[in-house]
Amino acid sequence: MNLFHTIKNPGNYWLVDQLKQESVPKESYETALLQLVQDWKATENGFISVLLDEAYESILFDEGFEKISTVVEYTRLLASLEQQAFPFHWNSLGEGYITDQQFTELYERCRSGSANKNKKQPIEEVVRSLESELGSAWRDICYYFVLDREVCGISIPHIEEGTTDEGRMFYFGVVPEMRGRGFGSSMHVASLSLLKQQNAAYYVGSTDTSNQAMITIFVKNGCTLRDRKGIYRFEKEQQ
Predict the structure, then answer these.
(1) Which InterPro entries does this one have (predicted)?
(2) Strand order through the sheet with 143-147
(3) Is the confidence at residue 239, as pLDDT, over 60?
(4) Domains located in the chain, CATH noted
């Protein structure tokens, strides 16, 4: 039984997310978690980031991990999502109207001033990870939103690896000059519509507990609180 979902970028990072199952005893999670950490330490460089129920955090502290923050996870079913008109339009990177470099710069603008406490990877590494994590057609699901020729923000909706109908957003963000004007909520609904077009049955989104703006968007758009986890990180020193 797989108790953790792990995205591996060998030599750079592992991203680990606990898959909570009520029928699994605590001891099984503890054993699997410790084995996973030992495997990473024995074979990898870079860093490992673990998203985990805070009840297990003492194991990671004993292994030298640092707690970065706490995140909340929200979800909603997409069957009841109604079609609506939006004040903006959107294009995918795959349509070729902007270059990869322009999308990278837009991504970086959206990340600036974020309330999330998780440590940022260099933007070039983030963009390189898009293909490794989302596949060769990643450009087709990288969207940017435009209102009166002004870019509002970006969204990267996709089906979670290992599932057939769980919708996620690899990233969702609003450019600084458009924040506080209601565009984030509308962009989020549009992104849910894009997930529904990808045949997602439900959506799962998460954000830092300090990011009240994103939590407000979740609640406004019909999402309900599903879980709360800590983010823990261990990074090997460069030799």
Answers:
(1) Acyl_CoA_acyltransferase (IPR016181)
(2) 4-9, 13-18, 47-52, 224-235, 66-77, 202-208, 166-174, 150-159, 143-147, 89-92
(3) no
(4) 4-72+229-235 (3.40.630), 76-226 (3.40.630.30)
Angle at alpha carbon of residue 197, lines to 143 and 192, rounded to 5°:
60
Give the SS3 label for residue 122: coil
Cα–Cα distance measured from residue 220 to residue 37, given in angstroms and rounded to the nearest whole number = 38
pLDDT at 121: 81
- Pairing assessment for the beta strands 166-174 and 202-208 based on DSSP bridges: parallel
Q: What is the mean pLDDT of residues 21-27?
A: 91
Residue range 147-164: mean pLDDT, rounded: 93
Q: Is beta strand 66-77 parallel, antiparallel or unpaired with respect to 224-235?
A: antiparallel
Q: Which amino acid is at 132?
A: S
Quickly count: other Cβ atoms within 10 Å of residue 130's Cβ: 22
**Do the beta carbons of residue 231 and residue 69 sit within 8 Å?**
yes
238 compared with 198, residue with greater pLDDT: 198
Instruction: Please compute the mean of the pLDDT values over residues 93-113 and round it to a whole number.
Output: 95
Residue 224, phi then psi, degrees to nearest 5:
-120, 150
The phi and psi torsions of 166 (rounded to 5 degrees) equal -95, 115
Closest among 45, 53, 58 to 4, alpha carbons compared:
53
What's the residue count for the chain?
239
pTM above 0.70, yes or no: yes
